[in-house]
Structure formats: C-alpha cells, structure tokens
Amino acid sequence: ASTLAGAAAEKGRYFGTAVAAGHLGEAPYVSTLNAEFDSVTPENEMKWDAVEPSRGSFNFANADRIVSHAQSRGMKVRGHTLVWHSQLPSWVGNLSAGDLRTAMNNHINQVMGHWKGKIHSWDVVNEAFQDGSSGARRNSPFQDKLGNGFIEEAFRAARAADPAAKLCYNDYNTDGVNAKSNAVYNMVRDFKARGVPIDCVGFQSHFNSASPVPADYQANLQRFADLGVDVQITELDIEGSGTSQATSYANVVKACLAVTRCTGITVWGITDKYSWRASGTPLLFDSNYNKKPAYTAVLNALGGT
Ligand code: G3I
After folding, report:
1. Measured in angstroms, how far is the CA atom of residue 254 from the centroid of ligand 1?
2. Where, by residue number, is the active site (predicted)?
3. Which of 1, 14, 30, 201 has the most CB atoms within 10 Å of its CB?
C-alpha cells in the first residue's frame, strides 16, 4: 500500500489524525486527510466547553461537520473527550457534588447519545492522574467533589449510553513504565477484576527531546494489553526533524505492530502548519503538505512503500 491508512489496514490497524473543523474548507488539508487517513479525532470540537457551554444547552454543530465528513469517506471516528479537567466550562466547577454527579452523567448520556453507533472509541476520562512520582489523582472538580469513584461512574454511564463504543481511558506521560503509568495500570487492573466496563487505554504519545519515546514503550503497551484491554496510540506527535524524528516515529509504529492488541495509531494533526505546538514541526506533513522523512519512515514501518 502507498498510504498510511492502506498500509495500516494491511496490518489490521487504523491510522488516524486529529482534525479541526475550521480547516475542512482548506483543499490540501482535506485532500491529505482523505488520501492518507481512515480515522479522525475531533481536536477540540467534542470537548465539554464546545458541546455543553452552559448547563443543558448542547451544541454539536462543529463536531457534526467532522463526523459527517468521516462518515461520507468511510472513516472511523474517535470521540475525545467526555470527562476532563481542562476545556471545562466554569459552570461545571461551581456545582455542588450532587449536581456535579447529575451533570456528569447527563453530559455523557447526551453527548454519547447524539453520536450513538458512530464512534468506534470514546476517551471517556482524560488525564485524571498527576505527573511525577506520586501516582495520585489530579485535582479537578470531579476528583475533588466526587472522589476516586468518578472514573468508574463515568465508565458505567458511558457503557449504558452507547454499548457499541469502545470505552478508553486516555493520558499522557504514561507511555513508558513509570509511577503515573503504574497508577493507571493499577486502576485498569482493578476495573477488570471488578467488572467495571473499560475496553481500551489510550497512550497520547506527545514526545519531544525532554520526553522522548521511552525505551520500554512496547513493553508498557504490552503490559496493559495483557490486562485484557486494547491499547491505542491516540495523540502521537514527535518534536524534531529529519532522520532522528523519522526514526522515533518508526519506533512507535513498530511497537504498536508488535503488540497484537494495539489496534491503531492517531497522529495529533495532519500538518505542521496547524500543530498545537505552535513553534514546532512534530507531524508527518510539513506546513506546505509535503511528506516529511517521518512520513516515509511511518509508511515503511507499516510495510507500505
Ligand atoms: O476556540 C477558541 C477561539 O474562539 C478563541 O478565539 C481562541 C483564542 O485563544 O481560542 C480558541 O480556543 C483554542 C482551542 O484550542 C481551539 O483552537 C484554545 O485557546 C486552545 O487552548 C485550544 O488548544 C487545544 C488544547 O488541547 C487545549 O487544552 C489544542 O488545540 C489541542 O490540540 C489540545 O489537545 C490536547 C488533547 O485534547 C488532550 N491531550 C493533550 C493535547 C495537547 O495539548
């Protein structure tokens, strides 16, 4: 195969990208998306501030544009994200515990219900653990008012809202074996032991020189897979350029292919022009949509040419 999605499909994986609705009018953005990818993740359009800016008032229009585009091209959609401390409208933080529980469950029901049957995987809870050595939960309105049980409660609500969707926990700095990934691992193991519905763990995989691809990346993916969940690389981008960037990208792809339950890879954007890393060049296409060495390295690692 000669495209990322085509080569990945021959290995039984999807190859996706984050997409911003605001760029869907740009011809080379869309042609690159359509040619190379078979899964999309709305970069911001499904987040709480975008879909429920005030309580009970839902706005799905921008995300619908992405979902419609994906469906018309036969692409999968990853849902991102239902319960997250960031891009959370201030009204959520002002609720009492009881109201917050009701609002969280309603948000999950309404948002998953709107796209029921159209989302292959949902990031139900995003980034709930702290960085560093503590392995502790991150402070958030959910953690602070509902306690540790908010994650379990969110997953149970999600299963009921769209039984066909794979339910993922998604985080960053959990890509290698470390205190943070150990904490997530222990949570997933506990969920599997107690029958709390969870199907997948997302490894964001935002890498740079200070945080390169860990040597134990594959081993870490494998230990989660061995718990009985799928693993997905959900927000891949790697700062740098040239051969070293290309080699790092290839290593990520090889790690996924070596783990049977690593079901797909999503890069966090199509082109360096629109990366969230404002000054960086972390993606597979340069700002003129030319294929970078990293693109070729990924394609070749997938077995394509
Ligand atoms: O939509 C507003 C616009 O109305 C306003 O005029 C403009 C002015 O700043 O801001 C716009 O919102 C921005 C939004 O992206 C949409 O472009 C926010 O400021 C900006 O903070 C937001 O950044 C996003 C970031 O998440 C927020 O946390 C990035 O695009 C997005 O790539 C990034 O993605 C996250 C994942 O969701 C979770 N994992 C980490 C990853 C990278 O930070």
Report:
1. 30
2. 235 (nucleophile)
3. 201
Residue whose C-alpha is closest to residue 82's, from 59, 54, 52, 102:
52
Q: Per-residue pLDDT for 278 more than 80?
A: no
Among 85, 276, 277, name the best residue to mutate to test ligand 1's pocket (greatest count of ligand atoms within 8 A of Cβ): 276
Tell me what ipTM this predicted complex has: 0.94
Q: Name the residues annotated as catalytic.
A: 235
Stated length of the chain: 305
C-alpha pair distances (Å), 12 with each of 8, 257, 258, 265: 6, 9, 12, 11
Q: Contact at 8 Å (CB) between 96 and 55?
A: no
**Atom of ligand 1 lying closest to residue 18 CA:** 32
Q: Is any atom of ligand 1 closer than 6 Å to the C-beta of 102? A: no
Average pLDDT in the chain: 98
Which residue type occupies 150? F
Task: Please work out whether the CB of residue 204 comes within 6 Å of at least one atom of ligand 1.
Answer: yes
The whole-model pTM stands at 0.98
- Burial tier of 24 (Cβ tally within 10 Å: 0-12, 13-18, 19+): middle
